[in-house]
UniProtKB/TrEMBL annotation:
Lineage start: Bacteria, Pseudomonadati, Pseudomonadota, Alphaproteobacteria, Rhodobacterales
Role summary: Allows the formation of correctly charged Asn-tRNA(Asn) or Gln-tRNA(Gln) through the transamidation of misacylated Asp-tRNA(Asn) or Glu-tRNA(Gln) in organisms which lack either or both of asparaginyl-tRNA or glutaminyl-tRNA synthetases. The reaction takes place in the presence of glutamine and ATP through an activated phospho-Asp-tRNA(Asn) or phospho-Glu-tRNA(Gln).
One annotated GO molecular function: glutaminyl-tRNA synthase (glutamine-hydrolyzing) activity
Family: Belongs to the GatC family.
Main EC class the enzyme belongs to: ligase
Single GO biological process annotation from the record: translation
Assembly notes: Heterotrimer of A, B and C subunits.
Protein name stated in the entry: Aspartyl/glutamyl-tRNA(Asn/Gln) amidotransferase subunit C
E.C. code: 6.3.5.-
Gene it is expressed from: gatC
Catalytic reaction(s) noted: L-aspartyl-tRNA(Asn) + L-glutamine + ATP + H2O = L-asparaginyl-tRNA(Asn) + L-glutamate + ADP + phosphate + 2 H(+); L-glutamyl-tRNA(Gln) + L-glutamine + ATP + H2O = L-glutaminyl-tRNA(Gln) + L-glutamate + ADP + phosphate + H(+)
NCBIfam families with a match to the protein in the record: gatC
Amino acid sequence: MSIDQGTAAKVAKLARIRVDDADLPALAQEFNNILGFIEQLGEVDVEGVEPMVSVTPMRLKRRKDGVTDGGQQDKVLSNAPDAREGFFAVPKVVE
């Protein structure tokens, strides 16, 4: 795939980047270089290679997945203009 100056101008407009007409050929060439690099990556044989989270082998930290109330009900309700019986109190809007 090749990027022409019209496509480069359209991409610049979508990205909300003002590019002078004189700079469009260089921008189109940069896009073509990037696409060339992506094509090179597609040629790499990755058969049998496990996906990595990081370049250094490490295990992600995990926490116990448990449901709690957060233990901060009083702190949260302290910001409420009106709280009753442990809940936010709001005016009735439906009759």
